[in-house]
Design a protein that fits this description.
Blueprint: H1 8-21, H2 33-46, H3 49-74, E1 78-83, H4 86-94, E2 104-109, H5 113-121, E3 127-132, E4 135-140, H6 146-167, H7 172-175, H8 193-227, H9 230-234, H10 240-270, H11 279-310, H12 314-320, H13 322-337, H14 340-346, H15 353-363, H16 368-396, H17 406-411
Parallel strand pairs: 1-2, 1-3
Antiparallel strand pairs: 3-4
GO cellular component, one term: membrane
Transmembrane segments: 50-71, 194-219, 253-273, 279-307, 327-348, 368-386
Subcellular location: Membrane
């Protein structure tokens, strides 16, 4: 007996039903459903005017901050100091040698201590340098600039030491012979710790911004599709796990591209500042940051997708996101502020090492095998999280009406 022939409508209904019931059995002619979803996610973002404006504004802020910093560093600071006589004038002028390379001290000889103090009160001078017997006084209105204070303190000390040495019938060199302390580091790093801290803070900020912004985008997108039941329609044509992978891959590509744009802008801006000499070691660490970021963000993006699938409303998403937010905050805080042993230990912790390891590389020489070992641990962690996320997402995304926990979602049959 021949098999009954189904009508085209019956065939489409049967295929759709089996696709939904089977957790997304592939019935679409598309060869790579996840790629279609990823391209759609990127297209939505790239046609969002607010998203484009946000990138342009951020790039402008990074470039503007770098240019402003370079301009401030290139400015010549002139400090006006009022004095009461020739001796004070000589010392004040000598203080210029202890200032920055381009900073200068302009001396006003007021003729008397009272006139010098009056010049400060009238705003004609930042400070007044006065000697009364053996005592030196630096008078300011409400404060004295720290650079000026330090320079004049050193100048007064040098002048006093020279005068005392002459009175004792000797010289300053003889008095200070053998008093110099030489610092010898067994593991010396040529990088400037201040520059390393600034660049490290930038890495931490970029990670935080991308992880929060794109993570919430993924979770909200999944939740909206679940609330308006669009996901049930998509599941008839696209395997459910491909929906998750498409969203994760699409947003990961956008996040990675955005980080590259911001990092390139910052590095380009550095070439117009005095920090251009340090750009070599910054580039090396920045390259490793990109690699660690790509792996770490991919894992976090998958988790964000699951959080959206387990929620039934926005309030559920806010409460369920606490664990992943804690990981993001920890990675950001350690990257921005940690140092020494804490930073070293954190550089071996999966996901947290996304910021900790590249920042650690800024301040010390890390063996390549340690970097690769930590990277391998991150890759393994990302693989396990993505597998877990796919299993939970496949079970939770079609469950509507109530929020699910991780254990509840894993008990749901696919």
């Amino acid at each position: 007996m021949s098999a009954p022939v189904q009508s085209p409508a019956e065939t489409r209904t049967s295929a759709a039903g089996s696709g939904a019931a089977g957790g997304g059995a592939h019935s679409s002619p598309v060869a790579r459903p996840w790629l279609t979803v990823a391209l759609r996610e990127m297209a939505v973002k790239l046609t969002d005017r607010n998203y484009i404006i946000g990138i342009v504004v951020t790039v402008a802020m990074i470039a503007g901050a770098s240019v402003f910093s370079a301009w401030m560093n290139s400015r010549t600071a002139e400090y006006v100091v009022a004095v009461a006589g020739a001796e004070e004038a000589t010392v004040a002028q000598a203080g210029e040698a202890f200032l920055g390379e381009d900073d200068v001290i302009a001396v006003i000889d007021s003729g008397s201590p009272e006139a010098a103090r009056q010049a400060v009160e009238d705003g004609e001078a930042e400070a007044a340098l006065i000697r009364d017997g053996q005592d030196w006084t630096l008078t300011g209105l409400s404060d004295v600039p720290e650079n000026l204070r330090a320079a004049l303190t050193q100048a007064v000390s040098a002048e006093t030491m020279a005068a005392n040495a002459a009175a004792a019938g000797t010289t300053v060199d003889e008095l200070t012979a053998g008093s110099e302390l030489t610092v010898d580091l067994l593991e010396s790093d040529s990088e400037d710790p201040f520059i390393a801290r600034i660049v490290g803070f930038a890495f931490a900020f970029l990670f935080y911004m991308a992880a929060i912004m794109f993570g919430m985008t993924i979770a909200t997108s999944v939740l909206e599709e679940k609330q308006n039941r669009v996901v049930e329609i998509l599941a008839t044509a696209v395997p459910i796990r491909h929906l998750l992978m498409g969203k994760v891959i699409g947003n990961s590509v956008l996040a990675f591209a955005q980080i590259i744009i911001f990092a390139a802008t910052g590095l380009l801006a550095l070439t117009f500042t005095d920090l251009v000499a340090d750009i070599g070691f910054i580039l090396t660490s920045a390259g490793w940051f990109m690699v660690f970021f790509a792996v770490g963000f991919f894992a976090l993006a998958a988790v964000w997708g699951v959080l959206g699938s387990m929620a039934s409303r926005t309030e559920d998403l806010n409460s369920n996101s606490t664990p992943v937010m804690m990981v993001i905050f920890l990675a950001t805080f350690i990257g921005a502020f940690a140092s020494g042993t804490i930073l070293t230990v954190a550089s071996y912790v999966p996901l947290v090492s996304t910021t900790a390891m590249p920042i650690r590389m800024l301040s010390e020489s890390v063996p390549l095998w340690q970097v690769l070992l930590v990277l391998a641990g991150n890759v393994l962690t990302a693989y396990l999280l993505v597998r877990l996320a796919a299993a939970v997402y496949q079970r939770a995304v079609l469950q509507s009406g109530t929020a699910l926990g991780w254990r509840q979602a894993l008990r749901v049959e696919t």
